[in-house]
Amino acid sequence: MEYKTYDIYQDGNKTIVKHIKDFNLIHIFECGQCFRWRRENDGSYTGVVRDRVVNVGYDEKKLIITNSSVNDFIDLWYGYFDLDRNYSEIKRILSRKDSIMKKAIEFGYGIRLLRQDLWETLISFIISANNRIPMIMKVVASISKNFGREIFLDEKAYYTFPDAYSLADECVETLQTCQGGFRCKYIIGTSEMVKSGAIRLSDIYMVSTGEARNMLIKLPGVGPKVADCTLLYSGTKYDVFPTDVWVKRVMEELYFQRETSLKEIQEFARNYFGPLAGFAQQYLFYYARENRIGAG
DNA sequence: CCACAGGACGGCT
DNA sequence: AGCCGTCCTGTG
Hints:
Number of helices: 14
Oligomer: single chain
Structural class: alpha+beta
Shape: globular
Helix content: 40-55%
Distance between the termini: 52 Å
Strand content: 5-15%
Number of strands: 9
Largest sheet: 7 strands, antiparallel
């Protein structure tokens, strides 16, 4: 069958989608936006998304999703991989901005911003505060294993991410077995606020980026960086510019050539990249971190 | 043993 | 409003 501009067919438990461009598994899964995908020996990735576990491979512009159906693709994977967005056009516009962006895009040409579950993204980025990626992956995996639901792929167990109600019922001490450290109290606090209705996460889809940001920042453990990451990596808002130490360094070194406050970097990015700020940030972040730009 | 890497928060000016 | 010490865990 034909879905938008893609050819889709089913082969056993594999959904295969042809003619997919602007796509690279390493760029997508190792650019710091997600913590649930693991690279296999053959270069494919296995991960849990919502209540599904799949293996994803990419070869000769073909996307191969194992443990999927055509309906799954249309309902979930098409949106998750942001396949209805024209990344060629985004890259063309951003590359014209300056030679720095051009280089960053050439480096991370296959990046796509995943539209991840809002709740899981929020908690994952609360965990990311003052933490490194391998540790974040460990904590998210542990929370899922302890409080999520077991699902299977090839007789191997994987775990869904627990919802706010499940986590709100736990105490900080129990959650601490997942190695979240000082962030555990924030996770419980945020879960309680979602459970009680003090915040309705679904509202952020209906309000402006500024309002969405202000709503999220009211949650414990959520500051400007975590709020922006949550909005961007859940596919909710794209005119944000999450500024962590790497983005700050690359901006200072390549754009400002001096020390620059977070406030000034954010203002510059909003004006300069406009509605594509989130995409620009992701190319810059991946470029900076992989090449250790600005690091000792 | 120590230094260091990472954002949010709270207390201070 | 901006600055800075503290929080937790793993690695070199």
